[in-house]
Amino acid sequence: MTTVVQVTSVNTGRAMRLMINGRKVLSGIGKQPVAGAVAVQSLGLAGDEQADPSVHGGRDKAVYAYPGEHYGFWQVQRQAHGVSLFDEVLPPGFAGENLTLCGMLEPQVWVGDELHFANLVLRVTEPRQPCFKFAAVMGYGEAPRDMLKDSRCGFYLAVACPGTISTGETGTLVPGRRSLSITDAFAAKRARHRR
After folding, report:
1. Residue 169 has what DSSP assignment?
2. Residues near 80 by Cβ (< 8 Å), separated by ≥ 6?
3. CA-to-CA distance for 48 and 36, rounded, in angstroms?
4. Could you tell me the residue range of the domain that residue 114 belongs to?
5. Do 120 and 98 contact (CB within 8 A), yes or no?
6. Burial code of 72-88, b = ≥16 C-beta within 10 A, e = fewer?
7. DSSP bridge pairs for 26
8. What is the pLDDT of residues 142-170, one digit of tens each?
9. Residues 109-142 pLDDT 10s
């Protein structure tokens, strides 16, 4: 069975200083939707910056994809923690992702799978790990724990074949070797952090 995925938003951002716990921290987590075809090369999307290449970016983490289906969960969590109003809708890119996707959740994605679009091929490399910057953007300290608890992590992608991508585009998930799912890889990293 073919898994079809839709790009609901393509997002880029410049590295900026965020005030987190009383100190200024450089971060590229602030992403905004962009219109039209966006060039994607081996190190990521044109117009996008990563502040800390040791954690985000590089060839294996060139693009970060996040399921848009998770946004409802984060809206509820932010409301429960008094961060947002009941009717607030989080914009695409809010979780720091380059691609907001629809139709593909973490349990369906495996390291080595490829996403084939009309002019671009991306390869799944690993899950995203939550960090203090994610907590700051979400507005409450337990946000990384909530991401861990339900494996709402999204995944990093390497650029297997450079090209362009646009909001509204559809692509297909082409299975790789299927030896390690994103959900299992995320659980393994979580277990290592508990030790």
Report:
1. -
2. none
3. 15
4. 3-194
5. no
6. eebbebbeeeeebeeee
7. 17
8. 999 999 888 999 999 999 999 999 999 99
9. 999 999 999 999 999 999 998 888 999 999 999 9
DSSP string, 2-45: PEEEEEEEEEE---EEEEETTEEEEE----EE--S-EEEETTEE
Report the pLDDT value the prediction gives residue 113, as an integer from 0 to 100: 98
Separation between Cα atoms, residue 99 and residue 7, nearest integer Å: 7
CATH number at residue 96: 2.40.33.20
Q: How far is 184 from 127, CA to CA, in rounded Å?
A: 9
Of 90, 92, 87, the C-alpha closest to 67 is 92
| Nearest of 89, 98, 101, 187 to residue 147 by alpha carbon | 187
How many domains does the chain contain in total? Answer: 1
Question: Which amino acid, residue 78?
Answer: R
**DSSP-assigned beta bridge partners for residue 33:** 11
Report how far residue 153's alpha carbon sits from residue 97's, in angstroms, rounded to the nearest whole number.
10
Distance separating alpha carbons of residues 35 and 178, to the nearest angstrom: 34
Give the integer Cα–Cα distance in Å for 11 and 33: 4
Residue indicated by tokens 């790009």: 7
Is the full-model pTM beyond 0.85?
yes
Q: Which two tokens stand for residue 148?
A: 């861990």
Residue type, 133: K
